[in-house]
Amino acid sequence: MGKGYAEGPAAEEAERRFEELADGPPQAAPEERAAVYGSTSDDPERHFLGWLGDVDPDELFESGAAYGITVVRRSAG
């Protein structure tokens, strides 16, 4: 006969959490920033153009300096 919470999913979750705490605090996720990627006439392959805020993707496109512009989240480190 079962012992209620001493067995089953609740006990398994408690054991998993105990092991997780024994490993120490969780690693902090690396800081992410918005990165601007696109192509230029000098380099038609998609490449890093700069960090959003440092470069303005709309201005790059409107001026014709870059095309195929995308903004993606990337690790800042």
How would you characterize the overall build of this protein?
By secondary structure, this protein is an alpha+beta fold. It has one domain. Helix content is 27%, strand content 29%. It is built from 2 helices and 3 strands, in the order H-E-E-H-E. Strand 1 (32-39) and strand 2 form a beta hairpin. The longest helix is centred in the N-terminal third of the chain and has 14 residues, at 9-22.
Secondary structure elements and pairings:
Blueprint: H1 9-22, E1 32-39, E2 47-51, H2 57-63, E3 67-75
Antiparallel strand pairs: 1-2, 1-3
| Shape label | rod-shaped
**Radius of gyration from the alpha-carbon trace, in angstroms:** 24 Å
**How many strand segments?**
3
Class derived from helix and strand content: alpha+beta
Query: What strand order characterises the main sheet?
Result: 2-1-3
First-to-last CA distance: 55 Å
Total helices: the number is 2
Average pLDDT = 87
Q: The biggest beta sheet, please?
A: 3 strands, antiparallel
Contiguous runs where pLDDT drops below 50 for at least 5 residues: none
β content, as a range?
25-35%
Q: Helicity, in percent?
A: 25-40%
Number of structural domains: 1
Give, in order, the helices and strands. HEEHE
